[in-house]
Structures are given as structure tokens and as C-alpha cells.
Records
---
Amino acid sequence: MAADDSEIDRASWPLQSSLELAAQPAAVPLARSHTRQVLAKWDVDGLTDPAELIVSELVTNAIRSATTSVTLGLASDRRRIQIRVRDDDPDRPALSRAEPDAEGGRGLLLVACLSVAWGTVDLSGGSSKAVWAIVETAEPTPPGIGERAVPLRPRDPQLDRES
């Protein structure tokens, strides 16, 4: 993750896409649609569901605080997706505990649960920020994991004999 206004490192993240959105509620479905299309084009659509949910949460938060526009950045190395949402509000979001009957306040908790890492970066000398998250494919399950390693009950040699 770059700590300034520079582009995301192309060597680590060779596939990149960026979309500028108006800071309006209509930006959220556009951001999800863009994410779906880009990930399909990059052939990493196995990450689409968590990426779309994270994009939805981060763009929703950004349009609530932005005064101008919001920029959605996507980057991939085909194993991971980096989602980056930039807005012009310098205040960093924070995880909070939502009351059980609250209608909101769980977005960053979802982002934290669906990503392997997330955070914020100050941009433009602290006058704006980017919130980022990384989603990655599940590693293949090693052989033997999830398979029954021992029989349900010990074998009884008496029962194994033929009569």
C-alpha cells in the first residue's frame, strides 16, 4: 500500500483499475457493478462476492463523508484483490461496536471479517484519505484435512473374523 498519492505498485499488483464516482448514493451500485465486471475480466471472479461487499461498505462510508468525489481503485495479482476507496475527508473511520438494534455501524466489522488486512492511508498531506482492504483466495486444503483420520470406533478383531 502506497503511503502517498502515488499509484499502487505495479510490480506487486499488475492488474489495476480506477473509477471516479460522484459522492452520491447512486455511486454504490455503480461501484459494485464495476467491481464485478473488472474481476470477471481479470478471471478472479472467485473473489467477487467478498470484494463486492467490501466495495459497497467502503464506498457507502466514503460518500457519507466526501464533499466532492470518491475514487475506487482495484488491483490484483490474480491471487489477491486490493480495494482502495479515496475521499476528500481526512477523518479516518474506526471500528465501533453497534448496538444490537442499530440499523448501521457494522460496515467496517464486515470489512475486517472478509479481508485479510485493511487500513487507512493519509493522502495529500493529510487533507484526504484512502481506506483499503485486501481479499485473497483460500489456500487449497492440504490432503487429509477434513477427512476422517480414524474410524468412528476401534476395530474389534472378534467381529472381523469370519465364522
---
Amino acid sequence: MTAFVRHPRAADPFLEYADEDADKESSGACAPAIPSANPPEDAYADADRYEDERPFCIAVLGAGALGSLYGGYLALAGCPTALISTNHRHMRAVAENGLVIEKQAEALLVRGLITVTDAPSLLRVPTFSHGPDLLLVCVKSVDTAEAAAAAVPLVRKDTVVLTLQNGLGNVETMSALLPVECITAGVSYCGAGLQAPGRVREAGKGKTIIGELDGAVTPRLLFLQRLFNRSGLPAETSRDVTGLIWTKLMANAGINAVAALRGIRNGEILEDPETLDLMQRAAAEAFAVARAKGITPAVPDVQEYVRRTVLDTCENYASMVQDVRAKRRTEVECINGAVAAEGKRLGIPTPVNEMLTERVLAMQSRYLS
């Protein structure tokens, strides 16, 4: 059984780790207000069946900072939970000492989490011999294909696969490897930082908004919403998750690459006219591409949304900044690069996103070579 204890948070400030385990993740955007999904009356009753037969088992594929945060809270809701990560030091620390989630005034110690460093080996754990009921996908977009291929043995016909990843193309990539009827998608506005192996800092607990790919409000969707809320992760459902993904993409396209190229915090973008202009133009191009695709953003004013996102996350370093500092591969191809690729396909000019993609890739190639 998962257990947790509370203890005062250490007085040390958040540390910027320079080693390979450094990982601070920010949601990169603030949650838009969305209308209620208005599910059918019998949908909530049907959602109960997910807990009727046996414990609802959860596996987090990509248990970095954000994935560990979700896994820890979901475990506290009473679900058998497994973390899957190739970060051996982090997995070993969680297995030996539990997962510490640092909050503003206290810290939670979550024990009983199952840890594995490759997806197929989870099936050798008795609790997960049937595979997980929920596979929560939190890997970086550049790793989606490899992670989904490794997860094939875990996915049954009734497994729910929920991606909370940034960028575009994740659903399409997974659909080529996993049953499309298993896949749901969402956006996360939580923030987390991996301070050290086994230790996660909660940098902000925003909404998690989830939806079916076809816009239906299904029993499994409502069950997940209820489970997340019960675990302390505020959740909503949406009939237009594609619109939400694109809305968050607009903020990420405007903020991440610009901040990464300058090596600055989000709030510093507003202090320089040149970086502010780049942010606004990149976001505007993403908006134009979305409209050309027939996608309606979840916010009435995209520029105000991006500006408010910067203000709400002004002290944060975007995940792309952290990737560059840690000399990791970035997600620029799935964010700015994806906007540029879709723009080219639709005949929509995206010169700023093309330029940002080229410059980040050039910087990345220097430190990866």
C-alpha cells in the first residue's frame, strides 16, 4: 500500500543542478477557461465500473519531474502506481527512499511506488502482470515513437492511454503503434522540477484538461477526471482537446525557443523589445496556421493569453531552456518546427517559427556533436 508522510519543507532554495539529472519542467502556459462538457446523465454511473473489479493500476511512461509529480499524487489516491524512466538514479532513489514532493510549506513523502527503467519489465511485477489500466504518457515529444514502441506489450484493448505531452504529432505517432481507440489526450498546466534523484519540487499545480479524440464525453474520461481531482490534481474534461493542444502550442511556440536562444527566464522576454516581438510573431503564426486548419483556439485573444502566460510563469525557465543547459535534445521540432511544417503544407507563411527552429537546432547540434 502506498503511504505518505508530511514534513516541513527544507529551507534550501530550488537548486539549479548542472548534472544529467537536472530537470525543471514548467507547464509553459496558463490554463484557458473552458465550457463545461455537459456529459450524459448516465455517464457518471458508467464511470464507476472502472473501480468495481480490482484496483485501478497506473503506469507513468516518462517519469521525469512532471511524470513523477503526477505519479506521486495518483498513488496517494490509492492506486497502484508505477514510474517508468530511463533515469536510473532517479528510479533507484524512489525505490529505496520513496518520492519526495516539495510544496511551498511542506513536503510529501510517497512510498510504495513501483519503479522500472524499461516498459516491458513492468509486466514481471505481479500487480502489473495484466498491464496498467492507465498509461500516462509524459515523455518528451522527440521520444514518443521510441516510448510508444516499448509500451506496446503493456497496452490491452481496454487500457486507457493518456498523453499530456507538449507539441504536435504525439497522438498521430502513438496511433501508428497503439490501438487508436485506447488513446486520449490532454494538456497539463502543472509545473515541476526534479531537484535531485527522488526529489521533485511542485512549481505550480494548475489544471489538467483531458478529452477524447472525437470530442465525446465518455465514462472513462469522467472516471479519470474524478480520479485526478480525488488525488489533488484539479482536472476538467473538454469536447475539443485538439483546440486546447493548439492553444497551449501557441504559448509554447512564442516562449520556449525565444527563451532558449537567450537563456532567460520567461518574464525577461517582456523586458526586451526584440524578444517580445519574436514571441508575439511566433505565436501569431501558430494562430494563423491553426485557423487555416479549422481549429478554434480556446482563448479569445491569443496575444493576451501568451502575455498572461509569461506573467504567470515569469520566474520559470522554460523546459527548452533547461534542455539546452543540460545539453539534451529539445522539443523545438515538435513545437516551432511543427508550426512551420503545417504552415508550409497549408501555404501559410511562418518565417519566425522557421528561423527559431533553425537556430535552436543549430545550437543543439553543436552541443550534441
---
Amino acid sequence: MPAAVAATDRSPYHGYRFPPEIIAHAVWLYFRFHLSFRDVQDLLAERGIIVSHEAIRQWCTKFGAAFASGLRRRRARPGDKWHLDEVLLKICGKRHWLWRAVDQHGVVLDILVQSRRDQLAAEHFLRQVVDGVGFEPRVVITDKLASYPPAIRRVLPNTEHRRHKRLNNRAENSHLPTRKRERVLQRFKSAEHAQRFLGPFSAVSNHFRPRRHLFTASAYRQLRTERQTPHRASGRLAGCHPGRSAPMRPFRANSPTPPAAQLRFRTAQVDNARYLAWCYQGNWRDGQRLEGADDQTSRLPRDDRCAYEPKMDGFRGQP
């Protein structure tokens, strides 16, 4: 096989000691929740995965954009009514503007960080959104910034432009998650950093954070399962089931390669709720089994007893 073909067919995870499931799960945790790299490091350590926060940062930098592109390709067709807005970002003492386009359902279509908010910046952002979505909207709603009317007339001549008071609340509210994450990050370090983070962050939020107030509890749980299951199966945004996490012996990236069974997240057959209820009954205290306690693990398979029986080393069972 030629070298060019071999390089093309090579997996993007080639050369990494950790399996794709662990890398993808770490990237998903960082972009899905308001966590720092060290928080993700601690969560993986609780699962038995010893990895540095710097490695997690490199994973997010390399694979974040690829995950975002895959989620955008698989999303449903956006609505034909777009809301455009820009918000100020103070980066290293300089003013930058975060441009954002949202449809009438609250789905973020695209974002762009620019140092200006004049007509040329508005045209550049509009062309980027149209190229990414693939069609022109029926209606565009903006605030009363003077740069929007001439830019929309040039880029979207057949689109209706509305700019009445309070019509653009949909775009204004879409900035709130960004502001929350900006506080966790203690401000963005550069315009490139903001663009590199907010792209995957918006795509992951669109997919894994549906508008909860529009669904019943059962419908929301079903939708959440449907959106998470394909990514676990494909290994892209896969990870251990949040309600069925089983501890495993820790291993380090610079240690000899452990067995394949240790590299994968072990999925136990017993829920965490059942395990915690069993612990709270008083069978264990300070890592020691009390005398006369009922051995409820005798009814479990051997692998599950090994995974769930508390030990002195942080409740980690020996396989």
C-alpha cells in the first residue's frame, strides 16, 4: 500500500497510548460540563484512569474541532429564521466581538470572534454562516447595529430583515452559557483560544443540552439516551455510562501496556444507586466490613462483586 494511502487510512488516535473511548470521554466531559482540565483529570482518576491535565488539554485541542464538525453534519436542518447578535469579549485588555447566529429553535448555527463589528465584519460572518448551513434564511432578526442593514442587503438580498425592539432576545439569551464558561476559564487568553473553544462548545451544547422546558421528564430521558447512545457505540463521544460506572485499578500512561480489559471502561451490571444503598445500610464503615452484615454481593456475578466490594485502597476492587 502506498505511503499516502496508508497515512490517509490511519486512525486519528494512532500513536496514543490511551484508547479512543477514554480520549473521547475526556473531551466530551470538558466541553459538556463547566469543568477545568484538572476537574476532568480528577473525574478520570476516580474511574481509575491516571492522566495529566496537560494531556487532556492536548486532546481537546486536537479532537474538539473534529467532534464539533461531526455533530454539525448529523444535526437536523436548522430553521429558516435566524437571529444574529454580537457580544463584547475583553481579551488581554483588547476589545473583541463574538458574533453568533441562532435559529428560532435556539440552535447555534455558527460563531466567529473578530476584532471589529463594522459592515465588513458583518458580511464576513454572514457568508460563513450561509456556507456552513447551506441555504439562505427567510428572515434575519438583528439588533439596531448600523452595520447589519448594508451587510444583509449585499449577502442576503432576498431575505427579510427585522430589527424591532426585543425581537432578538433569542440571540441575547444564547450568550449566557458562554458567559458562564468564560468565568470558569477566567477569561479567554486570546482570540484564537476563544474561537477554538467556543466552536466545539456550541456544537456539543446543541446536541447534548436540548431545551429541557419543552419536554416531559420521560421524553427528555428518552431523547438524552438517543443522543448519547450512537456516540458510545462509535467511540467518538463514548464513555462509561454515568449511572453504571465501575471502579478499576489505576494505570499510568508511561507504565507497561495493561491488558485490553483494563483499558476499557468496565460497565457493571448493578447501578450505582443499588451499590450506595447497600453501603448506606451499614455493611461497611471506614473501609472495613462490619461483623454480621448481610453479604448481598453473593447474589451478584463474580466480576460485579470484585468491582463493587469496597477495599482499603479507595473502594477499588481487585480484578
